[in-house]
Specification:
Layout: E1 4-6, E2 13-18, H1 20-27, H2 32-41, E3 50-53, E4 62-66, H3 83-86, E5 90-94, H4 101-112, E6 126-129, H5 136-154, H6 162-175, E7 179-184, H7 187-190, H8 194-200, E8 208-214, E9 220-226, E10 228-232, H9 241-244, H10 252-267, E11 271-282, E12 294-295, E13 303-304, H11 312-323, E14 330-335, H12 339-345, E15 351-353, H13 357-369, E16 375-376, E17 394-395, H14 404-413, E18 422-426, E19 430-431, E20 441-442, H15 447-461
Parallel strand pairs: 1-6, 2-4, 2-5, 5-6, 9-11, 9-14, 10-11, 13-17, 14-18, 15-16
Antiparallel strand pairs: 3-4, 7-8, 8-11, 12-13, 15-18, 19-20
């Protein structure tokens, strides 16, 4: 299903928000026949309940939707997204009772997404009038970028391999006039990206690194790095079948990067944007990298492979080292990196890591304001020594199985020049079940919060 944004018209069916506290008072203002009808069907304005009031006489049809009282801790600003599954096809608009029309519009758009590329039949469309008092172009920009990222994640690996993901990135770059280049296969070795090459060399489609640049040279310098593992078998440390089922989403970091890049480029704000996508498939073949192998990295540090299923940090290591070779104001990387992050915080709350308390507070603040939740986790220095190798500079994983998300972040930090300007986001990139604004399937996390942050940084520079 695709929700269309239409120009505002008074002819659209009005959606009204009500709660259990004000519904009884509102009932007294309804016509007796309408009030009796609501009572007959048992509508009591409980959160998530719906009353589609039919047209009676000169009174047009309208919608009443039960929401949480605003003073409750469990109030969900995106709960209006439930309406997408409840309303019949038609044209709707928000009434005066909807106070935060920006969040409501975005929730509607995000909830209306469905991945239908492989379906023979399409669902009927809902249309929403753009509220006159909001920046509907910005809301549409955000939603379209999220749709792009979700589509990339949801596309199965037979159609979203390294070549297809590279082309998706280059298509986006070309659309906005960005300059771009790529390094493919053996060229990675010649250009000194040995870890990216090692991880992806066993796949039918060779590994690659995509880079594109956009925006004025004197703009705020933002570098985004996204893990692009198009499918992760685990390599020689092969995953069980159950763990492999969702591994098409292991390129969720690259999809998140492209979503955020699209928001930035489409808004045309003065940002000098640099995007780096290391793209591989972690496959098994005669030339696959092995546990115990030792490889050089772009940073000059040698890395002993402890587990071929911890491949994401390896390709990010080369990309982050490359990122640090150019000046930047902020460096963000995104990766579906560890199961430990899900054990700690679950699928809805991605952890992030940075050595800057100020940046951490900035990220958290924008995450809460944009309803794009993120939670800071510590770069605990006492765990860093466990990454020191005995016959190499570093080991890729630590022994013992503890603090997996933290030690993965500490590994990445070894390849970052200035960790006070850097943040790592250990995302899940998937909604296990459908919730308001979060349909089941591929998901883009952190991008909306960071888009808000970058907009504010740009504004503060003026």
């Amino acid at each position: 299903m695709t929700l269309l944004i239409e120009n505002w018209t008074p002819d659209a069916t009005v959606i009204n928000f009500v709660d259990e506290k004000n519904w009884s008072e509102l009932c007294q203002k309804l016509t007796p026949s309408l009030a009796n009808y609501a009572k007959t069907i048992g509508f009591n304005a409980k959160p998530g309940s719906l009353f589609i009031a039919p047209a009676i006489g000169e009174e047009p049809a309208c919608v009443f939707f039960g929401v949480d009282q605003q003073d409750t801790k469990k109030s969900d600003p995106f709960q209006v997204g439930k309406l997408v599954a409840l309303l019949p096809a038609g044209l709707y608009r928000f009434g005066d009772s909807v106070k935060d029309k920006s969040s409501a519009t975005l929730a509607f758009l995000l909830s209306a997404y469905s991945f239908s590329a492989y379906l023979s039949s399409k669902e009927p469309k809902l249309s929403l009038c753009a509220p006159k008092e909001i920046d509907h172009l910005r809301i549409k920009r955000i939603a379209e970028a999220i749709y792009l990222g979700r589509d990339l994640i949801n596309t199965p690996a037979n159609d979203m391999g390294p070549e297809a993901l590279e082309q998706a990135a280059l298509s986006l770059a070309k659309k906005y006039g960005a300059t771009y280049k790529n390094f493919i296969g053996e060229e990675l070795l010649h250009k000194n990206f040995p870890l990216i090459h090692a991880v992806g060399r066993a796949a039918a489609q060779p590994p690659r690194l995509v880079e594109f640049l956009h925006g004025p040279m004197d703009g705020l310098k933002i570098t985004l790095v996204g893990k692009g593992v198009c499918f992760d078998s685990g390599g020689l440390d092969i995953k069980p079948a159950s763990a492999m089922q969702l591994m098409k989403k292991d390129m969720g970091g690259a999809a998140t990067t492209l979503s955020l890049a699209k928001m930035i480029m489409d808004s045309n704000i003065p940002v000098r944007l640099r995007v780096l996508l290391p793209i591989v498939e972690n496959s098994i073949s005669a030339n696959a990298f092995r546990p115990g192998d030792i490889y050089p990295s772009r940073k000059g540090l040698s890395v002993e492979i402890g587990d071929t299923d911890a491949e994401g940090r390896l390709i990010l290591a080369d990309a982050l080292a490359y990122a640090g070779e150019e000046p930047h104001d902020l460096l963000f990387n995104f990766a579906t990196l560890t199961g430990a992050a899900r054990v700690a915080l679950g699928p809805e709350l991605p952890p992030f890591y940075t050595d800057s308390d100020e940046l951490a507070q900035e990220i958290f603040s924008h995450a809460m304001q944009s309803y794009d939740p993120l939670w800071r986790m510590p770069l605990w220095n006492n765990y860093d020594k466990a990454l020191d190798g005995k016959i190499s500079d570093l080991v890729s994983v630590t022994s013992g199985g503890f603090s997996g998300s933290i030690t993965a972040a500490l590994f990445l930090r070894r390849f970052v020049n200035d960790s006070r300007k850097w943040a790592h986001f250990d995302i899940f990139a998937w909604n296990p079940t459908t919730k308001p604004a979060k349909p089941e399937g591929g998901e883009i996390q952190a991008a909306r919060a960071l888009y808000d942050l970058i907009e504010r940084r740009v504004e503060d520079r003026k």
